[in-house]
């Protein structure tokens, strides 16, 4: 009798266990089904899955505003990197505008000092003061800021397993005071955290040479490299394996990042960043040119061209139509990659340009035009006007002609040179070791 009872008990337990397992299985299927359903409602794929895990629904995206953030890179107390960035999760549009660290924010350039440069504001007025100055320059309201120490960048790169990046040139620089040593070879390679810091901080070599003129000398080149590197970091970070390292990213942020962005707020944007295509990222430098004033080199932004580029990169995202499209077309015609502004002299006016005699100014010609005809024609024009052509080179296709002042020539001499060839964007980029007074990159507009 006892044995029968024991068997019945065991049978009852097995039946009860089966029922429990069945209930658990039903719950699991229900949860998985709900997740799949919510994932599809949230857009499907990794984006939909992450959105579902974060508690989103199909209306969450509609409520997300476009982000405007000032990104600041700090190294040894100096803000060497200043970028205005935007991201709209609804349209998947994003922009990144570099602000030269020497941008003049004073009232009178004739009495300019180093404290009138925008990178000095951080030390005197902090991040809020820096945001205020960039808002004034761009006429964009910037509610958020993110300051990243270069040590944080190094840690991030190591966390995501390094970044594959095309180093644009051989880099060889040492600064014992900052304990900064940059030794990299040109070419596509995997950079760890230490090498990543070297890339973004490089400006010129020990011998004074810098980026090629067609890439963008000194700060222009560095800003371009910084933008390209950040794009590479973003591409690596949003890969599936790295997206799951949220805890590590939060730990890095707590240690190396200063921001007024709440983590609970920003996490809502994470699923939609997954869908962003880096090829759609708009990048540029604040338009303007360098000038020596009161013995100090400063960067003077061009207000008219700044307005156009802001319209193209940022305001058009908000839905402006015909007027902005016109400005976009004008801006593409008038602004070069490194932010130097065209002076509205068009190619059809070149035939009317009259040579002006010079005093043996040494010129280097870099042909970025489609054929050698433009190079030969400019060489003939300049030589007849008395200029000395020291050498000629060839570079990749360039749309706009650039006249680069290497030896601090006066404005009148530069304007005479420009009148002689009838076209060109003027830029001051002094180089004590240069063997020429002026370098001219011939564009397709000549």
Structural summary, described in words:
This protein is α/β, with parallel strands linked by helices and 446 residues long. The chain has 3 domains: 17-59; 67-334, Aminopeptidase (3-Layer(aba) Sandwich), CATH 3.40.630.190; 347-442, 2-Layer Sandwich (Alpha-Beta Plaits), CATH 3.30.70. Helices cover 41% and strands 22% of the residues. It has helices spanning 2-41, 45-53, 60-63, 121-138, 150-159, 193-201, 218-237, 240-243, 246-256, 263-266, 270-273, 303-313, 322-334, 372-384, 411-421; strands at 67-75, 78-88, 93-98, 144-149, 163-167, 171-175, 180-184, 187-191, 257-259, 282-285, 288-293, 296-301, 362-367, 388-394, 402-405, 425-428, 438-442. The strands form 5 sheets. It has a 6-stranded mixed β-sheet, with helices on both faces. Strand 2 and strand 3 form a beta hairpin. Helix 5 packs across helix 6 (193-201) and helix 12 (303-313) packs across helix 13 (322-334). It is elongated, with a radius of gyration of 28 Å. The termini are far apart.
Q: How would you summarize the topology of this molecule?
A:
Layout lengths: L1 H40 L3 H9 L6 H4 L3 E9 L2 E11 L4 E6 L22 H18 L5 E6 H10 L3 E5 L3 E5 L4 E5 L2 E5 L1 H9 L16 H20 L2 H4 L2 H11 E3 L3 H4 L3 H4 L8 E4 L2 E6 L2 E6 L1 H11 L8 H13 L27 E6 L4 H13 L3 E7 L7 E4 L5 H11 L3 E4 L9 E5 L4
Parallel strand pairs: 1-4, 3-10, 13-14, 13-17, 15-16
Antiparallel strand pairs: 1-2, 2-3, 4-9, 5-8, 6-7, 11-12, 15-17
Helix pairs in contact: 1-2, 5-6, 5-9, 6-7, 12-13
């Amino acid at each position: 009798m006892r044995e029968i009872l024991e068997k019945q008990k065991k049978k009852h337990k097995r039946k009860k266990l089966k029922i429990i397992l069945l209930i658990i299985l039903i719950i699991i299927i229900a949860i998985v089904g709900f997740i799949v359903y919510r994932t599809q409602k949230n857009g499907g794929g990794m984006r939909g899955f992450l959105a579902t895990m974060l508690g989103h629904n199909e209306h969450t995206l509609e409520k997300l505003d476009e982000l405007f953030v000032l990104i600041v890179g700090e190294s040894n107390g100096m803000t060497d990197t200043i970028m205005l960035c935007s991201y709209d999760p609804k349209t998947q549009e994003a922009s990144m505008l570099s602000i030269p660290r020497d941008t003049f924010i004073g009232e009178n350039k004739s009495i300019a000092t180093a404290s009138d440069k925008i990178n000095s504001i951080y030390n005197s007025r902090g991040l809020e003061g820096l945001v205020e100055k960039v808002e004034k320059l761009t006429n964009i309201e910037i509610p958020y800021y993110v300051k990243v120490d270069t040590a944080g960048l190094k840690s991030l790169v190591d966390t995501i397993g390094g970044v594959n990046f095309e180093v644009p040139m051989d880099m060889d620089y040492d600064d014992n005071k900052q304990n900064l040593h940059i030794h990299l070879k040109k070419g596509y390679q995997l950079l760890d955290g230490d090498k990543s810091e070297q890339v973004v901080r490089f400006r010129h070599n020990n011998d004074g040479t810098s980026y090629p003129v067609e890439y963008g000398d000194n700060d222009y080149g560095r800003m371009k490299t910084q933008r390209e590197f950040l794009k590479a970091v973003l591409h690596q970070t949003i890969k599936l394996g790295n997206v799951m390292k949220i805890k590590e990213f939060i730990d890095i942020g707590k240690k190396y990042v200063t921001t007024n962005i709440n983590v609970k707020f920003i996490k809502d944007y994470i699923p939609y960043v997954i869908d962003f295509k880096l090829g759609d990222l708009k990048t540029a430098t604040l338009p303007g040119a360098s000038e020596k004033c009161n013995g100090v080199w400063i960067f003077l932004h061009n207000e008219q061209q700044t307005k156009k580029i802001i319209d193209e990169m940022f305001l058009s995202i908000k839905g402006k139509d015909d007027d902005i499209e016109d400005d976009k077309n004008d801006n593409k015609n008038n602004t070069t990659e490194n932010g130097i502004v065209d002076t509205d002299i068009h190619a059809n006016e070149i035939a009317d340009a009259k040579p002006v005699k010079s005093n043996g100014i040494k010129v280097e010609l870099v042909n970025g035009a489609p054929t050698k005809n433009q190079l030969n024609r400019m060489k003939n024009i300049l030589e007849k006007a008395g200029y000395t052509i020291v050498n000629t080179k060839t570079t990749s296709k360039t749309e706009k002609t650039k006249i680069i002042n290497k030896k601090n020539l006066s404005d009148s001499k530069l304007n005479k040179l420009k009148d002689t060839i009838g076209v060109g964007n003027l830029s001051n980029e002094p180089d004590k070791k240069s063997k020429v007074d002026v370098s001219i990159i011939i564009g397709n507009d000549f």
